[in-house]
Amino acid sequence: MNVHYESKYKKIKRQIKKLVFENAALCDEVAEVQTELCAAREERRYLVKRLLRHEGFENVGKEENSAEAGALSTQKLSQPQKKRGPKKRQRATSTGGAVESERDRINLSEKKFDVDMYGKPKFPINLSNILLHSMGEIIPTNSNFHNEHWIYPVGYMITRVYAHPKEPQRKCVFTCKILNNAGVPQFQIIPDNDLDSVFFGESANVCHQGLLETLQRSLADVTKLPKRVQGEKFFGLGNTTVQSLLQLQDDFKQCANFKRFLSAAEWNFPEDKDPTICYEALQSIIAMSAYHTMPEVKDEPPDELFELN
């Protein structure tokens, strides 16, 4: 009897030893994979910086900001302080009133974000529903980059959160960019960590329509998305702060075809309730569709029907 238990003990001991070695090998493999992932992240960050530099917009470093702040403080100290006196009232003429309103509008726009010593905004700028990384540059001489109601600056880039095109119930960060492709604007919608699902075209509506069609295929027939293509709104060009920053550029008034921006009252649907743009609104439609497609649970028949007379 003791021999039997001794053999079982040795067998279990061998199995435990084997599992210990296997566990150690798996730990080594996990550590190696983590090292490769860290190297891949660093390489991806480096490539993104090079891409931004190549496309013409690069974030200002902390050293430049500190140097500018130091120069600004030195300049303030070197200037003599002026004595305060009673303010003189100025009569606002038609021209003066327009200048003052323009200055007030600029000051109002600057209160929403930080600016440098030259009065230029510091990026990125958080605008609640979008994160603005670059305003780009207006090309007034090319009519392809503006129309009656929209302006498409080259180098413009934002990020926003919306549903993943292949998994609609999962959040995904989308990067929206406007590039110059041989004199024709190229719009891009790039989902994060999924370079196989990049949507691009010569208009913002083409990109947005491709995204909505991919979402509809993922949702199958359970949920019907409204056929409301609004590419400019998805790119954040309908944001009032973005429009104010565009108006501050020198080339804004030189766009011959542009007349005015569309107001929020002219939009068909508020953005926070639009399932084609807002992630939360899309999830509400998906939840309601799943609720209506659930099979109805009927009550069981009463026991009296089964009783025999």
UniProtKB/TrEMBL annotation:
Record protein name field: INO80 complex subunit E N-terminal domain-containing protein
Give the Basic residues compositional bias ranges.
Answer: 81-91
PROSITE patterns under this entry? FYRC (PS51543), FYRN (PS51542)
**Segments forming domain INO80 complex subunit E N-terminal:** 5-51
Keywords per UniProt = Nucleus
Q: Ribosomal protein among the record's keywords?
A: no
Instruction: Report the superkingdom from the record.
Output: Eukaryota
Q: Which InterPro entries match?
A: FYrich_C (IPR003889), FYrich_N (IPR003888), INO80E_N (IPR056515), TBRG1 (IPR040092)
Question: Cellular component terms, GO, for this chain's entry?
Answer: nucleus
Q: Where in the cell is it found?
A: Nucleus
Annotated GO biological process: regulation of cell cycle
Mostly located where?
nucleus
Which segments carry the region annotation Disordered?
62-103
Entry's Pfam families? FYRC, FYRN, INO80E
